[in-house]
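Hey,
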Amino acid sequence: MDALLPPPTSGRVFRSGRRIRLADRDAEGRLRLDAVMRFLQDVATDDVDETGWGAPAHLWVVRHARIDVLEPVLEAGDVELLTWCNGTASLAAGRRLSIAAERGGRIEVDSVWIHLGPDARPARIEGFGVYAASADGRVVTTRLDLPEPRPGSPSMRWPIRIADLDLMGHVNNAAYWAAVEESLAGSQVDTRLPLRA
């Protein structure tokens, strides 16, 4: 797996912690990918709450995310979360998340978030305040990386529940990752080994 950028040596890095709860784990005790994405959402919100940057006028939605499970988190307990801005664009920003579990396990997330204005439409970012230094001039893209599925690729129906929708009437990004977990459960992938999703 190609390495993601480590935490910056200058600029804002927000540190937090969470306890892995029963609802965050699969039947074998592994920290699920949808729980990882909830952690990302929560720590991003906590970071912005602490700085006050742009609140409450700025809204964000995840455009794409990559999760690298370098070492699966297989035990309950506490995790340390580090997050920082790793790049900007005119309508978007990158956010990294690093998860380290006290009982072993490490997960890295690279994500790009679209910036929305008060009308819930994409809006230009005018300056980036306390987050600019950690971005260090790097540029992120909102272009999707995944190719279209090949004709005849396996598929499954996935009903959207009312509980999957957020305040904006948009499917919460953690709900998408629940579908990935369902797909993994029916595959030959050993989720107790490192993986990229």
